[in-house]
Design goal:
Blueprint (H helix, E strand, L loop, with lengths): L1 H13 L11 H4 L11 H25 L20 H22 L5 H14 L2 H8 L8 H21 L4 E7 L9 H4 L3 H7 L4 E7 L1 H4 L9 E10 L6 H6 L5 E10 L9 H10 L6 E7 L2 E8 L1
Antiparallel strand pairs: 1-2, 2-3, 3-4, 4-5, 5-6
Helix pairs in contact: 1-3, 1-4, 4-5, 4-7, 5-7
């Protein structure tokens, strides 16, 4: 199901205008952000219309192509035990990134910082809610309370930081590497490289990056250099741990500590470079990492 969330994130980014002011989480560090500005209602209404049309069309397409079997009575499926909850972190990540990107777009219409953050957070949550509802009417999936909690946690993490600290200090990020496990069950973990990137949870790692400088502004720590804590899984060739064990594997969790770069904190006057940095800041930069799992500690010279 992560494929559908990824498609929505791509759709949000696809309407991104290549224009950026300021540095960091751009509108937050704009020196004019504290001044009252009259919203450009034409742009604001246009953005509302574009989001509505894009989302409605996407949902219609999904309802016709993704759900192959006829819809049934609404049903609930508790899948919180699957994939060692890595998929739930993926939901949080996707909802967070949709919130972050849409808030940035709203800020360009001239609304206040608080309004942009709230509109972005609402978008991050509601962009995914109808998908969960459609799942509830599907015999293949079912409505997942765990997914809904994660879908809410992402926007809360985004808006909560801005409203509490007036900036983003903790940034969810993503990295991926190909594994040989997908070859064992290509129908589930992906039959080609593109599918494996989206379906093979064994190769996905979700990170939370932060710069000590954000918490200790008087320190000499570079603002762009971050510490990053990651979470991944391995040997999961089925959604359920028991099923993976039956197939001869021993699934386990992986925890990482690494370095990262906040691309929005790298100073440059080039607007295009700042825009690219803002968009790529959702991905973890490859770097040395310390891994801890049930197998003990290990050092990865370069991990992604």
């Amino acid at each position: 199901m992560i494929l559908r969330r990824f498609l929505f994130l791509v759709l949000v980014i696809s309407i991104y205008p290549v224009s950026v002011r300021g540095e960091g989480e751009i509108y937050l560090s704009n020196p004019d952000s504290t001044q009252l500005r009259r919203p450009n209602y034409r742009q604001l209404h246009g953005l509302f219309a574009a989001q509505t049309a894009l989302y409605a069309g996407s949902l219609y397409g999904l309802s016709k192509t993704w759900y192959k079997n006829p819809l049934v009575r609404f049903n609930i499926a508790d899948d919180t035990h699957e994939w060692k909850q890595l998929d739930k972190v993926g939901h949080l990540y996707t909802a967070y990134q949709i919130s972050r990107h849409t808030a940035q777009m709203y800020s360009w219409t001239g609304v206040s910082k608080k309004q942009a953050v709230i509109y972005g957070a609402i978008s991050g949550f509601f962009f995914q809610t109808p998908i969960e509802i459609l799942d509830g009417f599907s015999s293949d999936y079912g409505f997942s309370p765990g997914d809904m909690v994660a879908n809410l946690a992402g926007p809360v993490l985004y808006a909560g930081q801005v409203l509490l600290w007036d900036e983003i200090r903790i940034q969810p990020k993503f990295s991926f590497h190909y594994t040989t496990l997908a070859q064992q069950r290509p129908e589930l973990l992906g039959s080609n490289k593109a599918e494996r990137w989206l379906k093979d949870y064994n190769g996905q790692t979700y990170w939370f990056s932060w710069s000590p400088r954000s918490f200790f502004p008087e320190s000499n720590w570079p603002a762009w250099l971050c510490l990053s804590a990651g979470y991944g899984i391995h040997d999961m060739v089925a959604g359920e741990t028991a099923k993976s064990i039956e197939l001869g594997y021993r699934p386990y969790r992986q925890y990482y500590l690494s370095l990262d770069v906040d691309l929005t904190k790298i100073k440059t006057r080039n607007k295009f470079v700042r825009t690219v940095g803002f968009m790529l800041n959702s991905l973890k930069v490859p770097a040395p990492a310390l891994e801890f799992s049930q197998r003990g500690f290990s050092f990865r010279p370069i991990y992604y």
